[in-house]
Write a structure and sequence with these properties.
single chain, D-amino Acid Aminotransferase, Chain A, domain 1, D-amino Acid Aminotransferase, Chain A, domain 2, binds N-(5'-phosphopyridoxyl)-D-alanine
Length: 307
């Protein structure tokens, strides 16, 4: 089945989806993005990601390309036309296309928007989580506004590549004082020997993950103890459990850090239980694809469609 992408108001076959060479996302990484997990056809934590998108745009003074209602409808439509049961929706908004100049383009420059949909094998992801992943650590060399979900991801790419080359599933990033900030594309957590869930406090040092926020709420509902504070690599290595959270990994247990086993070297019961709870309750926090929407979409050949 051929994939459909959404590019600047048009639905186009994925293989033909193009943006202009002078899109500022391309030349300056002057763009932000969001990723939604899709589970059983529903967009997980839909509102949370939409709210963070608005914040990222606001922090960078990029004009939203459309209303939240229209954006929601397009994102839902992408799930539907790509027949995504389990997978991801990727959305990127740039400051638009303009003659290359570091300074912002004129205020009436239209922001660029693209959305892609990707199906994933839920069984494979589940098997990976049940096995747990190894992580390595690297210095965190990113810029000072990691709270903005910008597409400026080169340090993250290098960290993830280092992990892949080491046969690990993720790379944890460490600040100059030896404390873990987060991972290359997920938030880092530990469970202490006293059964406290610990993750770094939200600040400009980390991306405040939507999965992270949801997990806090779920943990508190379940009466678990939580703490937002920094922890070192050594503390994580001697913790009871460790795991990462993200829209794509949900809750994935970490069983080894820089070659040292965490706990007994197998996924911990807290991590697996939290994952199960997160997935089981996802549907309550999700947006179901809506069949009838009042947005205009442009079909591949340019004719307008109402869905
Ligand atoms: N990554 N930290 C970083 C650096 C991330 O890139 C991500 C998400 C997270 C977790 O955020 P959330 O729970 O909102 O997905 C934390 C996405 C999935 C990505 O880049 O593909």
């Amino acid at each position: 089945m051929s994939r459909i992408a959404y590019v600047n108001g048009r639905l186009v076959p994925h293989r033909n989806a193009r943006i202009h060479i002078e899109d500022r996302g391309n030349q300056f990484a002057d763009a932000v993005y969001e990723v939604w997990g899709v589970r059983d056809g529903a967009l997980m934590d839909f509102e949370g990601h939409l709210t963070r998108l608005a914040r990222s745009l606001g922090e960078l003074h990029i004009r939203p390309p459309m209303s939240d209602a229209a954006l929601s409808a397009v994102v839902s439509r992408m799930v539907e036309i790509n027949h995504i049961r389990n997978g991801l929706i990727y959305l990127q908004i740039s400051r638009g296309q303009a003659r290359r100049d570091h300074v912002f383009p004129p205020a009436n420059t239209r922001p660029g928007i693209m959305i892609t949909a990707k199906a994933l094998n839920a069984q494979k992801a589940e098997a990976r989580a049940q096995k747990g992943i190894a992580v390595i650590t690297r210095p965190d060399i990113r810029w000072g506004r990691r709270d903005i979900k910008s597409v400026s991801l080169l340090p993250n790419v290098l960290a993830k590549q280092a992990a892949a080359e080491a046969g690990a599933g993720e790379c944890w990033l460490v600040d100059p004082d030896g404390f873990v900030t987060e991972a290359s594309s997920s938030n880092a957590w530990i469970v202490t020997k006293d059964d406290v869930l610990v993750t770094r406090a939200a600040s400009q040092d980390i991306l405040n993950g939507i999965t992270r926020r949801t997990l806090f709420a779920l943990a508190e509902n379940a009466g678990l103890k939580t703490e937002e504070r920094a922890f070192t690599v050594a503390e994580a290595q001697s913790a009871r459990e460790a795991f990462v959270t993200s829209a794509s990994a949900f809750v994935t247990p970490v069983v080894e850090i820089d070659g040292k086993p965490v706990g007994n070297g197998h996924p911990g019961s807290f991590s697996l239980q939290l994952r199960a709870t997160y997935v089981a309750t996802a549907k309550e926090r999700a947006r179901k694809p809506v069949r009838r929407q009042s947005v205009w979409l442009v079909a591949p050949r340019g004719e307008r469609l109402v869905n």
